[in-house]
Amino acid sequence: MVISEAQLNLWLGSYLWPLMRVGAMMLATPVFNSRQLPVQLRLLVLLVITWVIALSLPQQPAIDVLSHDGFIIMLQQILIGVIMGFILQMVFGALVFGGQVAAWLARHEEFELCEERSLFPPDCGTDGGYCALLRKGHRHLSGAASGFALTS
User: Fold this and answer.
1) pLDDT category, 63, cuts 50, 70, 90?
2) Mean pLDDT of the 72-76 span
3) Same structural domain for residues 115 and 62?
4) Fewest beta carbons within 10 Å, which of 13, 45, 76, 146?
């Protein structure tokens, strides 16, 4: 069996571009960037995801992987993957922050939810937690902020 250079470039390009994008995304994603996950497992997950994506993509144009255009495409795929990973990192951070705010509001009794027990009280809108923070939280937050003073 004889494989030409064009066939080899086509095959490499169809797997290399998704590998670069998924690898860069996994590098910036908090779940896969953890030291608790073994490197072999991360590599296996990366290769399986790349293989599934490469099989589902349409036919790629024939671009030499080792040429200037191939290098530019590789940088583009890495940049897109890193951006995707950082977006996932922000989503995880937002979920963690939301959980911390909910836990903090549950711990502090002075932040009562709206007095009415209906599902959507008219003065609170749709979220009683924000209503409590706006009604009573400003006093506590301003008191905490006044405790920070610059000393020489």
Assistant:
1) confident
2) 91
3) no
4) 146
Distance CA 45, CA 26 (A): 10
Q: Same domain for 79 and 112? A: no
Strand positions, DSSP E, 80-152: none
Range scoring the smallest mean pLDDT among 50-64, 80-94, 115-129 = 115-129
Gap between the Cα atoms of 132 and 109, Å rounded: 11
Asked if residue 120 has pLDDT above 50, the reply is: no
CA distance 35 to 38: 7
Q: Are residues 44 and 87 in the same domain?
A: yes
Whether residues 90 and 23 fall in one domain: yes
Give the count of domains, the chain: 2
Question: Angle CA(55)–CA(61)–CA(64) in degrees, nearest 5?
Answer: 105
Q: Are the beta carbons of 54 and 15 closer than 8 angstroms?
A: yes
What 3-state DSSP class applies to 2? Answer: coil
CA 117: distance to chain centroid?
A: 36
Is 116 found in the same domain as 49? no
Q: How far apart are the C-alpha atoms of 79 and 55, rounded to whole Å?
A: 22
* Domain presence at residue 100: no
